[in-house]
């Protein structure tokens, strides 16, 4: 399980706090995956996906407003990365979720962790360095 590390700090307090919240949502997904006492996880998965989607929309808006305020030249390409993430979450195959909870949770956890880690360390660090 990935956890928050100092290397993810951008030095922009409100965005760092929001990134930490994304890690907390990922930790909730991980906890659900590990919980063997819950056999039907469908409703909880949908709740976590909704939370992830809502929070990322909030965070991406905040991040894009910040980039606009500093005149970041790569705002549009950064926004495309955000839109791709939202599209991936919006296009969840609910049939797959219902068929194999565990595999789906593993897939979404891997996607989320890789994306937020790579995105913070590469794309976000680029505008934070400005």
TrEMBL record:
Pfam families tied to this protein: Hemerythrin
Residue ranges constituting the Hemerythrin-like domain according to the UniProt record: 11-128
Keywords assigned: Iron, Metal-binding
GO molecular function, one term: metal ion binding
Taxonomic superkingdom: Bacteria
Family listed: Belongs to the hemerythrin family.
Name of this protein: Bacteriohemerythrin
Annotated organism of origin: Ruminiclostridium hungatei (Clostridium hungatei)
């Amino acid at each position: 399980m990935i956890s928050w590390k100092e290397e993810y700090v951008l030095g922009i307090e409100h965005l760092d706090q929001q990134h930490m919240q994304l890690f907390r949502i990922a930790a909730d997904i991980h906890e659900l995956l590990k919980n063997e006492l819950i056999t039907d996880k469908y409703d909880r998965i949908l709740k976590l996906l909704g939370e992830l989607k809502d929070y990322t929309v909030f965070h991406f808006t905040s991040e894009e407003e910040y980039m606009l305020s500093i005149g970041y030249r790569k705002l549009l390409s950064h926004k495309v990365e955000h839109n791709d993430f939202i599209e991936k979450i919006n296009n969840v195959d609910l049939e797959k979720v219902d068929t194999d909870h565990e595999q789906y949770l593993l897939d979404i956890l891997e996607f989320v962790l890789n994306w937020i880690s790579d995105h913070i360390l590469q794309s976000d660090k680029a505008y934070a360095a400005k």
